[in-house]
Amino acid sequence: MKNSSTTATFCLILFAFLFPFSAFASSENDWELKSSLTAVSQDTSTKLAMNVARCRDLFSLNSGEVSFVFTLKSGVSLSDKAQYSIKFAQGNSSCSKDKLEAETGEGCISIANSLDLNAKTSPIEVRRKVADLSSANDANSCEGLSEASYLYLIVKDPTTSDASRIYTVTYTLDFRTKRPDAPQGITATPGGESIKVKWNESKDAKSYKVYYGTEGTLLDKGAKPEEITGASSATATTTSTTLKNKISADMTYMISVTAIDSNGNESLLGDVVTAVTEKTKDFWESYREENADVDGGFCFIATAAYGSTQEPHVALLRKFRDDILQQSAPGRAFVKTYYELSPPLAHFIGQHESARTITRTLLWPLYGFATLCLYAPWALALIFAAIASLVGALIWRRKRAAKINAKAALLVLVPALTAGAFAAPNDAYAESPVNMMVEFKAGPYKPDNLGSAFKTHFGNDSGFIIEGEYDWQFWRGVGSLGLGFHLAYGSISGKGVTESGQKTIDSTALHWLPLRLSLIYRFDYLWTRFNFPFTLYVKAGFDYAFWWIRDGSDAIAKSTDGKDGYGGTFGFHVVAGIAFVLDWLAPDMEKSFDVEWGINNSYIFAEYMYAQIDNFGAKGAFDLTDKATFHIGIGLEF
């Protein structure tokens, strides 16, 4: 075997000496092509799609020329006998692809003939005047072309295995500049901060573009979109869209639509219509009219807790912000989010000394983390490594325990089956320890105490909330006790209203993001002891809900006196639920899940929740209380 390997290596070296690698350049695939024109989605490595806008752009080039570059790929070389020619054919004409010699036929132009080609020659650059690329001689004559031009690199290298072979790399400029038909039947329905635009489907259109501007914007039916100035635009893939950017109340807007085909050609402008927006109110404006003491917005946690921006703890956190967080994009994003969504303690912590004391205590871990980051990052790295090692050890121990339990089950089952005995799965199988649970759930949610403003904008509808929960079970006996950490998201959408109370096309939406901490008791004794597949449970704990309101332009809402429509509210919740144990239906699958994944039990459940989120009755709170809601979901117990 060793002698055969040596022989093969020797033969390979000899082959490379007698037939040098320079002879490998024998295919059009050995070349990379590019041009000075910006690529679009229809382009390929050997084809450049030319729609009407791109054709017009050609005539705006300062040099009046377009460059095309052929580059030999890395690792491919040529012999010293290789030659090349460059030819160009315009307007659906073509050139011979197997001749280095110049051609005299109509439509084929020889640019370079039988020149030496080597490593120093590549890349090969060819420049052509804009007017040579098509039959167009100016921007206006780009309309309605259906032709192609070709640029040829013809190569011959006699040292290849087929010394007579000539190959050609072809670069195609495909001019398809016929515009689709302009859309018809354009209508515009105004709101206060949005306008809904509809139109009829246009033949050959793949997408559409809506142009709009305030009264006086130059939009004329039949105008070329390339010549439009001063108008805003929005794209759409269907025959309707809602304009929200740069739309204000009490303004007149001019609107038109164009169609865009698969080649990127854009039609002329269709009919120009007008829309007059009117003054409308979003939910935040209506709510503030009824609840002038609810300001929204946030204040800074540490400043509220200590009462001064100069206090040393506050200064430390400010330094952590500037020296650590602001030095990276994720850190800057966190700071921005914090400023937008930090807890509204100006009305709560600032007014309650007990709350300030609790907050100062809760901030100590953050002070410690900031101190380590600023002055002892090596200690932070050691702590992180220790935690990672501990988690890894726990995972390894859990998997090892699961394997041991599986082996123990086999040791019990095999003798039993051999003896003809039958044992229930739970008698022969030892589960891995149970100490945590993960839940995913969803259900309706309707804030009950937001007054008539809520009904005006959202009617009698309920919002929808989704929630994830992680539970740590710290005690097991007759049932279990645990701590639950929840993250939820809910929203409800409605319509803006006019001063007279009529609904408009403007949207307005309320969003909330509750964070919950729960104490949980699960009565699973009937399942663990008697294999009865139902578990009862109760939960109670504290909530903090971020909330924000959007107006008709999808921006954060502002009241007429300039108050921002976002904030946060404290509260509490109580939950009662019942869960059905899915393992009861498939006990064999239960064992497999435990051995492979450490999943002891899986549940489907339904629960009732009372959530009072009103800053514990403090004045000026944005009240997100829902006195009766329910969730359904699935849970996995580990």
Explained architecture:
- There is one protein chain.
- By secondary structure, this protein is of the alpha+beta class.
- It has helices at 2-18, 52-58, 283-290, 301-306, 312-323, 329-341, 353-362, 364-375, 377-418, 425-428, 451-458, 525-530, 587-597, and strands at residues 31-35, 47-50, 65-72, 83-89, 108-116, 124-129, 146-156, 166-176, 187-190, 195-198, 207-214, 232-236, 240-243, 252-260, 273-276, 280-281, 436-445, 463-477, 479-498, 503-523, 534-550, 566-581, 601-612, 626-637.
Keywords:
single chain; 638 residues; alpha+beta; eight-stranded antiparallel β-barrel; five-stranded mixed sheet; 13 helices; 24 strands; extended; disordered N terminus
Chain-wise SSE layout:
Blueprint: H1 2-18, E1 31-35, E2 47-50, H2 52-58, E3 65-72, E4 83-89, E5 108-116, E6 124-129, E7 146-156, E8 166-176, E9 187-190, E10 195-198, E11 207-214, E12 232-236, E13 240-243, E14 252-260, E15 273-276, E16 280-281, H3 283-290, H4 301-306, H5 312-323, H6 329-341, H7 353-362, H8 364-375, H9 377-418, H10 425-428, E17 436-445, H11 451-458, E18 463-477, E19 479-498, E20 503-523, H12 525-530, E21 534-550, E22 566-581, H13 587-597, E23 601-612, E24 626-637
Parallel strand pairs: 2-8
Antiparallel strand pairs: 1-3, 3-6, 4-5, 4-7, 7-8, 9-10, 10-13, 11-12, 11-14, 14-15, 16-19, 17-18, 17-24, 18-19, 19-20, 20-21, 21-22, 22-23, 23-24
Helix pairs in contact: 3-11, 5-8, 8-9, 9-13
